[in-house]
């Protein structure tokens, strides 16, 4: 390996490391604004680990305004590969681009936190801001207590029910668009996993060469989230206001 190649490799590794830290900090700032005030700081580590695990890395990478041009049509990889590409991209932006450019990309990346805007507890914004104590040493995750798990499940089901009608519009939009061109969207089977002791479902929809990804605490909302992701990628989402005005 030539000295030039070694230097290039070192730059990429540094970009990836720093990009990961910048990315985590950006999501942590969104998380701390969104997490319900009644959740104690001792449980932040576990919940934030859930956010990182459920983050839509592939959708973020495929976003044409982030690093979508990096991927050829039909490219599919595992989550770790998308993470590496995303972190390296953020790190390179920090090194080569303006601060405003980096802020714009980080703001766009935050929209791929599953339902981040729906976590917010309106009552928590009216309460005084509590001092946040540091997490456990060494990053050890704190297991949620049973009452907190029960409350978290109730909160999740509540906001999912409220959001279902709005998200269902994107599924209807895809269906209507498909009927017009004679090509209907195809939904994958929902896959179940466990996140912080709660059931979590992920699914995909394929339509016109684009794959939309969605995840939520119920199958039906995961499907609607996948529809929204596909509409966003295809540039169809702006039609929602006209369709339901």
Automatic annotation (TrEMBL):
Residues 119-139 are annotated as: Disordered. Residues 119-128 have a biased composition (Basic and acidic residues). Keywords: RNA-binding. SUPFAM superfamilies: dsRNA-binding domain-like. SMART domains: DSRM. InterPro entries: dsRBD_dom. Pfam families: dsrm. GO terms for molecular function: RNA binding. This is DRBM domain-containing protein. It comes from the Eukaryota. Residues 169-236 form the DRBM domain.
